[in-house]
Design a protein that fits this description.
By secondary structure, the protein is α+β, with helices and mostly antiparallel strands. It folds into 2 domains: 51 residues, no CATH class; 233 residues, Sandwich (Protocatechuate 3,4-Dioxygenase, subunit A). It is built from 9 helices and 11 strands. A hairpin with a 6-residue loop joins strand 7 and strand 8. Helix 2 packs antiparallel against helix 3. The protein binds benzoic acid and fe (iii) ion (FE). The site of benzoic acid has 9 residues, from helix 5.
């Protein structure tokens, strides 16, 4: 057998054909989707390595980074998801899985501070349990893409306090369930509640991902936002944010969560009589925000994966 024949029969590793050689090893019985995923990853990974031409030291530094990222993970901290977030991959996966008809409220990432089981409140309740921060009135409607009100929609909201921390990050400092709540839209689709104006805050940056951000000249701040999940029978659930328009980080959100259609108008209200009507003191911020739901297209809604994740 000539060398040429042997090469054709036994594809040993060579720099030029490295990805093809690796991918050819996959067994005929392997799951087809896994095979497709792995072959694409191998193809692009080898292409990246060929373009980068890392030294051994650089390759080891990359392995150490991934090892440190794994070591940072525990029941409360998922550093790999954080890595995916800052690389824009979480938003990309979210966008691919939540393409909506025009006019429907867009999705954004869930974030690590969602906690299921928020307290249920009547419309008008104040979810700020410690009275700290600039008062805010949030009101609006849940409607469908034709503008018709959706009655009985569940609107779950959560946000940081005025220091930029979620309640779960400050156990014993903030009251449990501070700035979280679940509301139900009324017969005309309307909802309203009181809270405080959201402010920007850094994503957890005391681990390898935070260090990497610093090394590549990026800050860890998220633009000021309030999270919400809106669900109603017959409609696609929406996991989304409302952003304040005046935040300095709006165009440089650390996890790329900002979308044009999610930036709200926040009006500063000085009228004391108006404030009293809503159980507030002037000045307060008022944000009027409608959630527009798209009709349900599949049995599985975009929030079902959260329940699976919580269950695991
Ligand atoms: C958040 O908005 O809560 C968040 C999102 C991604 C990473 C960290 C925090
Ligand atoms: Fe957040």
């Amino acid at each position: 057998m000539t060398t040429g024949d042997r090469k054709a029969k036994y594809p040993y590793f060579e720099e030029d054909t490295s990805a093809e050689v690796v991918n050819a090893r996959m067994g005929a019985d392997a799951d087809p989707r896994l095979k497709q995923v792995m072959s694409i990853i191998v193809k692009h990974l080898h292409a990246a390595v060929k373009e980068i031409e890392p030294t051994h030291e650089e390759w080891l530094a990359a392995i150490k980074f991934l090892t440190d990222t794994g070591h940072m993970c525990n029941q409360w901290r998922q550093e790999f998801i954080l890595l995916s977030d800052v690389l824009g991959v979480s938003m990309l996966v979210d966008s691919i899985n939540n393409r909506r008809p025009s006019g429907a409220t867009p999705n954004t990432i869930l974030g690590p501070f969602y906690v299921s089981g928020s307290p249920r409140y009547e419309n008008g309740a104040n979810i700020c349990l410690d009275g700290k921060g600039e008062p805010m009135l949030a009101s609006g409607k849940v409607v469908d893409i034709d503008g018709k009100p959706v009655q009985g929609a569940q609107i779950e909201v959560w946000q940081t306090n005025n220091e930029g921390f979620y309640d779960v990050q400050q156990k014993g400092v903030q009251p449990d369930w501070n700035l979280r709540g679940m509301f139900t839209s009324a017969h005309d689709g309307s909802y309203w509640f009181r809270s405080v104006k959201p402010r920007h805050y850094p994503i957890p940056n005391d681990g390898p991902v935070g260090k990497l951000l610093g090394q590549i000249g990026r800050h860890p701040n998220r633009a000021a936002h309030m999270h919400s999940i809106v669900t109603a029978p017959g409609y696609e659930p929406v996991i989304t944010h409302i952003f304040t328009p005046d935040c300095q980080y709006l165009s440089e959100d650390a996890v790329f969560g900002v979308k044009h259609d999610l930036i709200a108008d926040f009006e500063k209200v000085e009228d004391q009589a108006k404030a009293q009507k809503f159980g507030l003191k002037a000045p307060y911020w008022s944000v009027n925000w409608d959630f527009t739901l798209a009709p349900r297209k599949s049995q599985e809604g975009s929030t079902d994966w959260i329940n699976r994740m919580v269950a695991n």
